[in-house]
Amino acid sequence: MAKTPLDLFRFMPFRLNRLAAEVSNALSIEYRERYGLDIPEWRVLATIGFCEGPCTARYISHCTRTHKSTISRAVTTLLRRRIIERVANVNDRREFALQLTPKGRALYKELIPRLLRKEQQILSCLSAQDRKKFAAALGKIEGYLGLVQTIEEAGKTGTY
Fold first, then answer.
1. If 0-12 CB within 10 Å is exposed, 13-18 middle and 19+ buried, where does residue 35 land?
2. pTM listed for this prediction
3. What are phi and psi of 135, to 5 degrees?
4. Where is the HTH marR-type domain (predicted)?
5. How far, rounded to the nearest angstrom, does the alpha carbon of residue 11 sit from its chain's CA centroid?
6. pLDDT in tens, 77-125
7. Which of 34, 59, 115, 158 is most deeply packed, by most CB within 10 A?
8. CA 20, CA 26: separation in Å to the nearest integer?
9. Which CATH architecture has domain 13-125?
């Protein structure tokens, strides 16, 4: 029986994982060195900031595809640093929601332009048309895998 070798450098899951790790590491330099945030802490901050309102740790874990224990540790650190705070969850009194503190909002507002510039720098190797095609291709794969792609979709489906 002939065995077909797997060429990892052509295997899409391997390539996407490697690309995601490198992009994440490149962005993490922006928030690690200046703000002392690690990747999970950034994911918590970014998700809460994106939602522009309270959300649960479960929502953050699901949205970012990060294990709940990793998110829990990040939440603990951000609570201790007073970047986020707990608030009552109006939908489920057994659970609390998280929101940015004034310090957290200021950090988020300062950090976002830096990360957007870094994103543009990373994508600068692509033409405007290539960027559109790349975004569309990612959207198709996300859709095929059933991933919610907008905050409006998330609200309608109750996925998050």
1. middle
2. 0.85
3. -60, -40
4. 13-143
5. 24
6. 999 999 999 998 777 777 789 999 999 999 999 999 999 999 999 999 9
7. 59
8. 10
9. Orthogonal Bundle (1.10)
